[in-house]
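Hi support team,

I submitted a single chain yesterday and got back a structure, but I'm not sure I'm reading the token output correctly. Could someone confirm the output below corresponds to the sequence I sent? I've pasted both exactly as they appear in my results page.

Thanks,
R.
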Amino acid sequence: MQQNSGPIPYGRQEITQADIDAVVEALQSDYLTGGPRIGKFEEAFAQYVDAPYAVAVSSGTAALHLCTLALGIQPGQKVITSPLTFAASANCILYAGGEVDFVDIDPRTGLMDLDLLEEKLHQAEAGTYAGIIPVNYAGHPVDMERVANLAKRHGCWVLEDACHAPGGYFINQAQEVSKVGNGLFTDLAMFSLHPVKHIAAGEGGVITTRDPKLYEQLVLLRSHGITRDRSRLTEDHGGWYYEMQELGFNYRLTDIQAALAHSQLANAASGVERRREIAAHYREVWKGLPIQLPENVEGHAYHLFVIRTERRKELYNFMRSHKVFVQVHYIPVHYQPYYQRLGWKKGDFPHSEAFYNGCLSMPMYPSISDESLKFATQIVQSFFH
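Hi R., thanks for writing in. Yes, this is the structure output for that exact sequence:
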């Protein structure tokens, strides 16, 4: 087995000279925040996912929070999400005063089990649930058309947590490609610009929609609820005048971050293709090993390549001892002490719990060298042989 030349993370950003030049240009411009680069990035991102509107914000968590507010969660209303996700997917419901409920995953995919979702909605009294937040876990797109049909039948809105899946798609019932985040089957979709995601801005998030009223509300809420739009002002004292129309937040993205994210978009499509090549390599090299590989589906965006094994802890420690820094995604939300104080407990969602007990995220990022990729695959082979 070859020697590894350095540590290999499970994911990392790739910063090109073009990215650096874009940031330097922003730093030398008149605007570090509140300037034209934000709008240019939003326009480019909307085009990338085939959505009419995009709103850039300071983080994926901020995006989730603003979405729940714009969708109008009322105190005590229940919203469904997946237990197998980062806590922010559920926390945003609580931020807005709602109540979290979960639907267990399909053990084959790690995605919310839509049969269980349908059963839960069917058994509930009308009006029990206000919304649904499906999660495109690891980059595997949810069948959002089926979710939309269920939501419409039961009077729910749909917020797609698409942080793992920009550039992903699924095939809808009309046998057409439906891009993640295009808004055809959701009220809102949101993405993350964290460094390990497909498009890096240091921190940041993007919300996409086809609804102009939701778009206007999101733009208002991300900046303290303040507007200078003359059509929305109740008074007008002069060019300096503004009004706070809503209780909003300082969730703005800076021009520095927008410049980096916009530059990164130039390589987004090729990055997804590289991720799919890495996934194909893993599948070929690891077939026959006593591990469960992720489902091979068209349109997967491969933020993560998650294997499952009964020897997860041993393999985790073995790989890290060779400086291959694999990771676990995720500890189920209902395992967290905060959520257990809300009444959830181990045993509530057996498929998510079993998935967690065996899952391990392998190195998955476009800039991984062929040498490092070969080394990572050989480490796994050597462990099981």
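A quick pointer for reading it: The longest helix spans residues 268-286. Let us know if anything else looks off.

Best,
Support desk
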